[in-house]
Amino acid sequence: NYNSNYQSWMWKKGPGCTHVWYQGNGSNRTIYHDLGGVPELILWKALELNDNNPLWHFGLNNGVNAKYYMVHTDSRNGQVDSRGDWIPNNSAGLDPTATYFKVGANSPVNSNSSMIATSLYRSIEGLSKCGYYQGDSNGLTITTGFQPRYMWLKRTNANDSRFYYLDTLRGWGSGNDQWLEFSDTGAQQAYDFGAPTATGFTLLGGNDHVNANGNNYIYYAHA
User: Residue 183, Cα to own-chain centre: how many angstroms?
Assistant: First the structure.
């Protein structure tokens, strides 16, 4: 439509991904799932509310007590301590296990009478990788165990941190990578992030959003 091109990235339920729907009740609760392993990445969306779209990743806070933190996919802000809001305010926190995770009382993860959709992911050898790293400003090689066709990353310890995503169909690896951003409605733009490799991907240094010394980043990659 309107002389534009569209592309979708879609995940079918399988070994590394599942989807769970539940109706919110406004109280701390346990949500059961069938991912078949401990989730490393969870996204929420309240279907009937105009609200944030939170994301949890096991690499938040550089992997230290990540169960207390989340980020907004629709914002450039860094991680937030969500205890007492999206996460129960106790020592268990989100407490993801192979059969359940816990949510707090508030919207959009558990607003009373609101239908909530969640997507859960975990790393599968040769197929997908949830990971995190610390930047060094020089250049990094990230190992996933496969050659990725899709990848997103986000800096978590500072605000003004873009949520980039790349794929090889649009051009990732040519030196003029076409990037998009979860938190922005603009068209794709070009920047040299690095390139996929046979076992992961490289990242150039010098960009605070991608690879800055001492900064923390989360990512998800798929073959």
Answer: 12
- Residue ranges for the chain with pLDDT beneath 70: 1-2
Dig out the tokens for 33 from the structure.
Answer: 């799932």
Q: What is the DSSP string of the chain?
A: -TT---------SBTTEEEEEEE--SS-EEEE---SS--SEEEEEETTS----EEEETTGGGGSSGGGEEEETTSS---EE-BTTTB-SSTTTT---SSEEEE-SSTTTS-TT-EEEEEEE--BTTTEEEEEEE--SSEEEEE-SS--SEEEEEE-SSSS--EEEEETTT-SSSSSEEEEETT--SPPEEE----EETTEEEEESS-TTT--TT-EEEEEEE-
